[in-house]
Amino acid sequence: MGMSAEDERAASPRDEEWPEAEKAEKLARGAALKWASGVFYRPEKLEGLGHYRRRETQRNSSIQSRLKSTVQSYLEGVSAGLEQLRSAAQEVQSVCQDLGAARWALLDSADHFQGLQQMRELMEEHVQLASVVQVLPQIFSVHEVFSHILQLLHGQHLLEAHVELMMVEQLRDDILSQLHLRGLSSAQATVLSYFSGLQDLNESLAKQLWDIVGSSLRLVREDPVLFVTAVRIIEREEKIDDALLLEATFLPPGRPKGWRQKFYQVLQDTITGARFHAPRMDAEGPGLAKHLAALQKDIVSELCVVKDLMVQCVPAHYNILSVCTATYHQALTSHLQEILREDLDKQGLFLLLEWALHVYHSPEMMAHPDLLPEVDVSALGPLMSSELVDQTERRYVIKVKASVFEWMQRTLEVEFKEWFREEEPETDHQGFFQSALPAIVMQMLNENIQVASLITDSLQQKIYNMALEELEAFLGRLREALVQCGKEHQQDRAVPKYYISHLLAVLNNNLALSNSVSSLHPDTACREVPASLQAALDRMQKKAIQLLLEELLLDLQPLCLQLPSRKWLSGSQLVGSMCEVIDKYAKDFSRVRKPLFTLLLAESELLVANQYLRALLQRKMVCKSREERGQLCHRLLQDAMQLRELFCGLGLERSQQSLEAVFALRELICLKDPALLSLEVLGFVNKYPDVSDEHVSTLLDIRGDVSKEVRHVVLEMMAQHPQLLPEGYRPIFSTILVPVPELPFCLRKGKCA
Asked: Contact at 8 Å (CB) between 681 and 718?
């Protein structure tokens, strides 16, 4: 099924003109051949070929018929469009001819238009002259109107006066506007001089209005009509200002008046000037308290008047209650800053902080039931900024600190005098010595901290920190006073008479202070005592204990001077006398509370052991025989046991006693074989690491039977085993200085023996 030569020649020009048509025809023929080969590839299918050819012939005929109909319809539409375009072109040409004719006609009548312009100008002048003629009677009566307006103002007929004043102003403004349009500035000056009385009338009316506004809080209660009249006049003027500003063509002199803004200014000046620009008042506590109370009462009262009465007398857009509230708030802010520039005492600073931070926002003032819910100062910010509050709190802390220092100094002076009185200090219900000092100090500090908590947590913390600093400084001064008392007592042991009793009272007071300090902390969950304050308490306690031990030492020293001696060795009652002295002091020590009593016993026992060993080592006695060594060991055993039993009986456990050193020293002296001394000394040194070579050498001298070789071995062994003091070890021997051995006398350039 190929194409004939005629078909190819007929298709050639079309294919050259429409290459897409050739491509589409090839695709269609290919698709048809593919479909036909797929349908008629079987012999039995060839029977339907004739039927298929007829059906396709009918469909092609139908398609060709529809195409012809469509092309015919399209050609008819194109013909109609061309006809319409031809008709439109003819009409346009006709219009152009008519416009040209009209143009020539207008050019011919131009001369006639100039005559019309002159006629128009004459007509405008006639209209202006007619308007001037109409207002001439009013212009001639202006001065008479001025007099009438002045009479109305004097009679306080403000509304009538203002109506006539507006009429005169309107007349003046109309004339000036006409002159302004014609550019006649010289004539404007003449008109302004003719209406010059208007300025005085305006000022007179304004003065009366501002006097009324200045008395508004009183008038709305007594005569609200006058105040309402003033507001109506102000609103009239405000509308005229708005209209003139909106036109923006000609602004008459004196406009805009801005009387509404002036109303706000006068009202604010009235509020601030009445109470906040008053003469300087007493800035101290009582005077300031009265001043703040008066402010509180008057502000609440006046805001109630504004809320209940003035709001009804002014338009809603005035927001008069909000304006007055903000004015009071800002005025108070400035007023408090002025007060703070004064040198206020602590009571004044406290009152100011309390009033600004608590009273101002309380139901007693700005949150008063009569003001809520219309009055709300939460959006106006605080009366005092956070920086100003912090600065004021610091000033308050400084004032309180000076007051606390003064009170503590007086308390210390009273306490110092009490020490020299001819009677014992007071006792509590358990018989422990005490004085009123801890209660006075702690009550003073606690009251100041509690008072500060009524203001802010930050102020409470500042006062707490200050209280600890002052307490620490007070303990330092108290310690110095105790040292001074001790010096006077050293000069005369009869002064003070009850020296030991007062020292015991000082210890009890110090313990009471130590136990009470934690209760000062604002946070109950945090009860730690600062390290520096605890150190001050410890120093105070150590000084009091030191003075007591010095007193004990003074009574023990005469007895210790008799150690060692032949009399003591033979069995005197020397240690018994020491026990009596110790027992006497222990009875005094029982007047302090238990932890202090145990500490005093331990320190006394250490002192006794130290003094006993000191006497034995510094005034060494050399045993000349084994019998003397045995006698010395027996005496050491008896003394140590007697002293140990005494302290055990007083309540000091053996594990807390230092007298075990005497038993250990006795073992060194009692050792029968000197060759074993190195091992014994090693054990002794391990137990008492503060023992020095000099101490051991002195002990070997006391034995009296140690050869130079054994001494050398012992000292060499100590050198090979240096000891370190363990943590918590209580030194016994380190405070005992043994005498330096005397060197043999040598001749110059000679050899020592």
From this structure: yes
